[in-house]
Amino acid sequence: MKHLLSTADLSRDEAIGVLDTAAQMAATQSREIKKLPTLRGRTVVNLFFEDSTRTRISFETAAKRLSADVINFSAKGSSVSKGESLKDTALTLHAMGADAVVVRHWASGAPAQLAHAGWLDAAILNAGDGTHMHPTQALLDAYTIRRHLAGPGAPRGGAGDEGVGADLAGIRVAIVGDVLHSRVARANVRLLHTLGAEVTLVSPPTLLPVGVHTWPCRTSYDLDATLAGWQPDAVMMLRVQRERMSGGSGAFFPSPLEYTRYFGLDARRLALLGDHAIVMHPGPMNRGLEISAEAADSDRAVIVEQVANGVAVRMAALYLLLSGTTEGISL
């Protein structure tokens, strides 16, 4: 694995390898000294053309925990905002000796262009491109699901500590909300299918993309029926991305109140879930729109844990891309 651009590129064994490595990384983070020497002397560049404090800090933390040198490059206020091309930016990073470049870009396909154009010799990690993909978010979501639902003693069984070596066969995941604008949904559908999970997308028809019938999942317009009848093991609420909606959110649903009434997760809908079911959200949340404060703060919610797991998963991704092996992780 030279780059991490899309969850569609990962085989089952590769995906499980990343999750297992993340479990090893997570085990080292309970120590008093959390740093590992594994990427000492390597340079990781966070190249963000789109704002995302949460993702940037997570990648920065992951790289520093592996003892890599980190350069944060923001497009705002840089030469990019003055008209510098993606190619010229890549050539600059190549001259600086970047070993890995974490790319977040408003245009779908930008990380793939960096990876295949030959402008720089570095591992490319896609940290979100347009409405296309967000592979590390999907991996941290899968890691969180596996910890709760596929480990020893969990409802779906599993192999080893925290489900190490296990896939997500038979686990049911409902992904709810603004699928149309969500790279998180696209990345998760592909990865969860690869790992054997069953996925249902729940959304108003105006927020489902053209061609969704070709995706390896079910679709539903009825959240209550999905929760009560299908009984998902995990419910992943998606943020309503008003900033990506031309004409405003009113072009996609009549009002925030109506959206919440039909597709928001609240206390009443929490009660429809099985005792073991978990609630997820990639963040940032629109509390009171797609998820109520009561649901977000409930015992079922693993939203804060997702953030913590993101560091371990991104440590794993950086380590595997730059070392090519799981050997030598000091546990």
From TrEMBL:
Domain Aspartate/ornithine carbamoyltransferase carbamoyl-P binding as annotated: residue spans: 2-146
One Gene Ontology MF term: aspartate carbamoyltransferase activity
EC number: 2.1.3.2
Zinc in keyword set: no
Catalyzed reaction equations: carbamoyl phosphate + L-aspartate = N-carbamoyl-L-aspartate + phosphate + H(+)
Keywords in alphabetical order: Pyrimidine biosynthesis, Transferase
Binding site for carbamoyl phosphate: 54-55, 104, 134, 137, 283-284
Gene3D superfamilies in the record: Aspartate/ornithine carbamoyltransferase
Pathway(s) it belongs to: Pyrimidine metabolism; UMP biosynthesis via de novo pathway; (S)-dihydroorotate from bicarbonate: step 2/3
Alphabetized Pfam families for the sequence: OTCace (PF00185), OTCace_N (PF02729)
UniProt key word Transferase: yes
Residues annotated as binding L-aspartate: 82, 183, 239
Domain Aspartate/ornithine carbamoyltransferase Asp/Orn-binding: 170-321
Function, as annotated: Catalyzes the condensation of carbamoyl phosphate and aspartate to form carbamoyl aspartate and inorganic phosphate, the committed step in the de novo pyrimidine nucleotide biosynthesis pathway.
Family membership noted in the UniProt record: Belongs to the aspartate/ornithine carbamoyltransferase superfamily. ATCase family.
Oligomeric form and interacting partners: Heterododecamer (2C3:3R2) of six catalytic PyrB chains organized as two trimers (C3), and six regulatory PyrI chains organized as three dimers (R2).
Protein name per Swiss-Prot or TrEMBL: Aspartate carbamoyltransferase
Taxonomic placement: Bacteria, Bacillati, Actinomycetota, Actinomycetes, Micrococcales
